[in-house]
Fold each of these.
Amino acid sequence: MKIPNVRAQQRFHFGTAAPIFSGKIPTPLRLRRTYPTSMKSISSLIVATLSLCAAPTHAADAARPNIILCMTDDQGWGDVSYNGLTKIQTPNIDAMAAAGLRFNRFYAQQSCSPTRASVMTGRHPNRMGVFWPGMPLRKQEVTIGQVAKQAGYATAHFGKWHLNGVPGPGKVMPETDPLSPRNVGFDESFSVTNYFETNWTFGHNGEPEKATGDGSDVIVSQALKFIGRQTEQKKPFLAVVWFGSPHVPHAPLPEDLKAAGGSGYYGEMIGVDRSMGTLRAGLRKLGIAENTMLWYSSDNGGWIDPKKPDGHGTNADLRGRKGDMWEGGIRVPGLIEWPARIRPAVTEIPVGVVDILPTLVDLLQVKFEHPVPLDGISLLPLIEGKMKARSRPLGFWQFAGDDAAVEKKGFDTNSGPSAWNDNQYKLVKTPPMEAAPGKWELFDLTTDRSEKTDIAAQHPDVVGRMKAELEEWQLSVIRSYKGEDYPEKRVIQPPTQPKTPTKQP
Ligand SMILES: [Ca+2]
């Protein structure tokens, strides 16, 4: 597959071709997409733009779903009982999995802030310099909050943010912070900069508010208040609910710690599972569960410590851990429950956090003005049962540095390990990077998800094709990093950029 040069393409908008849905959605709301004739061969490309056009007129139409994005912090692929966990049970997440669309190949990025940047933008985090946990989003990016607001949705963020360049324990973000949720597309926030535990002080629209109890329970309770208000006003909403659990430090409620056999990590997972049950029950009580699109995923693979098997989760039989390009670093539990549109199903089609924004753009018919490359695709065809395979691979790439490191060492296709996942194969480039061109390994994920057998030598043609695709994608990412996507053709970085990356956790 060839990655097109976005800059050479003519602008196009979502909103002028064949409907994706049939039957239930009124004609004015049908989703339409078109591509210029010359782009047929690259019809999988999705392009977003930076200046949002006029809002659609169907702001509060009941045919459009409410959207809730739930995400845990450092939960491993094996840390749900539907994926084989036995140390504790996760009955509420399992119920969601049984009722919705379960992705066996759902991909985050390898760590915290990078994944959050991808959720917000539909783009790989290196495009905006969010290389590492604690690094800030760029103000020039369009966020999923802005997309939803453009479509007339009420928007809110709850819990961990980690996109304003502030490391360390979660702190209240003042309204003056240009990268706080309220300043990048969210009407309301009950949020902190990073992780939080029990009995924490959150920032409620910038004002400190002490909350007692388990942090997961607290943010879901706050989210339900917001959801209840929007339901009363008959306004569709986007609620982003980002848990601080089961990330370190571990401080579950005493009863959850006991129920988890003394494991703080799994005690926090019990709190997450309970709060997901509260959320699902709350939606049903409000009568809006049917047309609410509820997403659930983790933000990276489990940290994993072989010396403490109950200490930092499990990635089951997946190789590696948080921070790695191996499946254990990036493949996480992933679900969408949406009773109005989704019948229970399990899929092996690879999808990821980069797909969330393109899916919402497609769903909400949001139009943009200035094209930028997106790394995700709309999942509506998959939801409708029309997608048999992913149309373009997922790229992964970890650069362990910041802007100063880029200045010093440069930033090119050899800057850090990378991976290219298509429907069958995964090409991984591992260190050493600078001294050599890196080591290329190829795995067939359909038969070897544990990445045990490198088959690069047996498939030089596949390696050659995927290597070319990966490097072309990386060059596109580098152009984005330099600011070439933006109307200003340069980066206007807010003064919150940390001098050095924070420690990985
Ligand atoms: Ca994390």
Note: The CA atoms of residues 26 and 63 lie 8 Å apart.
Amino acid sequence: MTTTRSSAELIHAESAVLAHNYHPLPVVVARAEGVWVEDVEGRRYLDMLAGYSALNFGHRHPALIEAAHRQLDRLTLTSRAFHHELLAGFAEELAALTGLEMTLPMNTGAEAVESAVKVARKWAYEVKGVPRDRATIVVAEDNFHGRTTTIVGFSTDPVARDGFGPFTPGFRVVPYNDLPALREAVDETTAAVLLEPVQGEAGVVIPDEGYLAGVREATRAAGALFIADEIQSGLGRTGTTLAVEHEGVRPDAVLLGKALGGGIVPVSAVVATREVLGVLRPGEHGSTFGGNPLAAAVGSAVVALLRTGEYQRRAAGLGAVLRDGLAALVGRGVTGFRCRGLWAGVDVDPAIGTGREIGERLLAEGVLVKDTHGSTIRLAPPLTITPEELAWALGRLAAVLER
Ligand SMILES: Cc1ncc(COP(=O)(O)O)c(C=O)c1O
């Protein structure tokens, strides 16, 4: 269905009938292909956000669209009351991709996190022997794991938390990238340490070399699980399939989402060892849509793209271009940046504008980005972007900062 209303009319209409839990940039997207999107007036923009990494393979990647079409014509939903022919293969592929063993399929990222919290607690009681209802989970300051009441309960962002209590107990918050604090917090009640290997929403915060390996060591020593939330960092974004690979670390559980659905359907998963996911028995957890045939078809096609290694290589190679381009802007409007693979948090001199204002100016230049906190913008283009397109986007950023 297409619309006859203008962007301005649609934005105005939305404000009357949609909850105001977002403050989108004033662009109304009508269609997209690869790294380019087009608004309802036909203006084109280079997408440097890629759905917060849900579009790692670009908009409407032909192989993913084909897999979705094929499945739409065959079978879309069974619920888990019955088996379907694609789920075993999808789970086998996820195990091979991550070096883990079993999958718990869900839909959104937050659901995968919630599921991991439940599973970690059950594991703590049944395997580790933590006294009933005493299990704790250690998380990091400035985390972002989603929006459910349990998850925002252990957020340290007042905007995410305030007004939504009372919250679920059982979480301990430690500073990110601080191994002594983490070691201090982990004890005989600890079910798991739950961390983002790179903190995306916090502004693409990359821990010091050795931190993730240290977390692995500390959790192993304390007999606790290490759960890596790779929902934003995983599936090629940082130049490796998983961001934990930068330190050669294998967690007990990896949470996947966003790009796992190819930008087509919500697909998430807890992928873990047999010891961890083996604690679940029929009736204890579930989801009507989790692991549905359409999701499995698209998810398998995503894994097939990642198996080629091409997207990881692109992210690593183009990441170097991105890093060099941003380094050249330091002192010219950029006060600092953090970059891993094709993913960067860029701190803009507040005198030039807030992140939001920079986003609006870039929009006028034909580039879509999103701010995070204060004057930080984040760049995460589809991994299919060409060096020329990336250079063009960086040129637009330079122009906006100069003005
Ligand atoms: C690291 C991380 N975990 C979880 C989530 C939540 O995912 P969803 O929005 O699909 O619930 C996000 C979303 O930005 C994320 O970045």
Note: The radius of gyration is 21 Å.
